[in-house]
Amino acid sequence: MFEPSEKSGGIAYAIREVLVPARKLEKNGIKIIKMNIGDPIAYDFDTPHHIKEALYQAALDGYNGYAPSEGYEELREEIVKREKKRNGMGYDIDDICVTTGVTEALQMFLAAVLNAGDELLVPGPTYPPYNLITSFHGAKPVPYATIEEENWQPDVEDIRKKINRRTKAIIIINPNNPTGALYPPKVIKEILDLAAENNIIVVSDEIYDDIVFEGRHYSTASLAKDMPIITFNGFSKVYLVPGWRVGYAIFNNPNGELDKVKDAFFRIARARLCASSVAQRAMIAALRGSQQHIVEMVNKLRKRRDFAYKRINEINGLSTTKPQGAFYIFPKIETNKWKSDKEFVLDVLENAHVLFVHGSGFCPVYGKNHFRAVILPPLEVIEEAFNRVEEFMKRVIE
Q1: What's the pLDDT band for 17 if we cut at 50, 70, 90?
Q2: Do 374 and 35 contact (CB within 8 A), yes or no?
Q3: 41 and 147 both lie in a single domain
Q4: Is there a smaller number of Cβ atoms within 10 Å at the N or the C end of the chain?
């Protein structure tokens, strides 16, 4: 029997792993309501037609070979224009690298900066690959507290306490996955001040930037234009193309502090060849074309957010804050009937046939006793799901 590497033993991705027991039930003819994965296309959303046409046209026009490793110039130019218009940032195309989704951007960044024993400050709870990939490199993900009673805002004092000489970067995910929190400028600036005091890189994951229900999203780099900040963004969520895998990293590097990290990042980019050529061409059309689908999507999601928030808080044994962005909600399990949140999720799956993701999969400290649900399904599906959950909770608790 051949043995896998030791470092592969720690790899586990909660969002997809809960699908394994769900598929076993489905093989027995049981219909599962899936509220586990942040894929709008799995529900009643669809890629705008002009973006689909652009993908097809790109293939017809011969864009079927390798693209430049850093991405097509035309796409990077459109990203520069978006950043100027939306965030007031004056980037150059050489500050941008197109990646195979945001997950590849963070893989490349972590490979470029982490050595064994380094630490990465991540929000607790967080998008799981930040923890997984950090550990894979022999470094340590350190979760900082976010405060549920304050709509999951970062606890800046907790960040301060956890900074030490091994801290390589602070991660901000705004709007947040899995909580749906939206961070105001004041909180972001406080984190930036800490980073500046301690000479630490800030990485801002902004993949959900245009999916906001109240207020507005402020890009981290726009709040500190003179600081070294790396922004991750992409097209999967806002442009409804999750399977096309196109993201990008932007280096805000006004004083050259990121020169060596940027060089390492782009060397890794060249080593892995390129992101999809035809998908990149389609994203040029996405940025140049109509943005009306974003307005319609956000309006639809706001209604679903409102309903899910109200409905969950009506269920005995559950409570939740109201998400302000993205398309997730992160309820709390208010009873100790289960040994863990994962046991709760599997019990709900087995007996109510609704699939969520256990909160400890996003952070064993600050995610425990919670679960994540998407607010992507149509209202009637969300209603049916939580009707089932309510009946289940009544049977267990009462």
Answers
A1: confident
A2: yes
A3: no
A4: N
Same domain? For 27 and 41 the reply is yes
Residue with tokens 């990465």: 120
For residues 209 and 133, membership in a common domain is answered with: yes
Q: Is it the case that residue 24 has pLDDT exceeding 90?
A: no
Over range 93-105, report the average pLDDT: 96
Whether residues 239 and 364 fall in one domain: no
* Those residues with Cβ within 8 angstroms of residue 193's Cβ, 6 or more apart along the chain or in another chain: none
Instruction: Give the phi and the psi of residue 354 in degrees, each rounded to 5.
Output: -125, 135
Q: Give a yes or no: residue 379 inside a domain.
A: yes
- The answer as to whether 330 is a domain residue is yes
- Tally of domains within the chain: 2
pTM of the model: 0.93
Residue 25 has pLDDT above 80, yes or no: yes
- The last residue of one of the domains, among 288, 316, 340, is 288
- Domain CATH number, residue 348: 3.90.1150.10
How far apart CA 18 and CA 348 sit, in angstroms, is 12
Please determine, for residue 68, whether its predicted confidence score (pLDDT) is greater than 90.
yes
The two three-digit tokens of residue 336, written as one number: 């100790």
Q: Which residues constitute the domain of residue 330?
A: 7-46+292-397
Q: What is the DSSP string of 222-291?
A: GG-TTS-EEEEEESTTTTT-GGG--EEEEEE-TTSTTHHHHHHHHHHHHHT--S-HHHHHHHHHHHHS--
* Nearest of 156, 136, 137, 138 to residue 146 by alpha carbon: 156
> End of a domain among 243, 259, 288?
288
d(CA 13, CA 16): 6
Task: Return the half-sphere exposure (C-beta side, CA atoms, 13 A cut-off) of residue 92.
Answer: 4
Query: DSSP labels for 60-128?
Result: HTT--SPPPTT--HHHHHHHHHHHHHHH-----GGGEEEESHHHHHHHHHHHHH--TT-EEEEEES--T
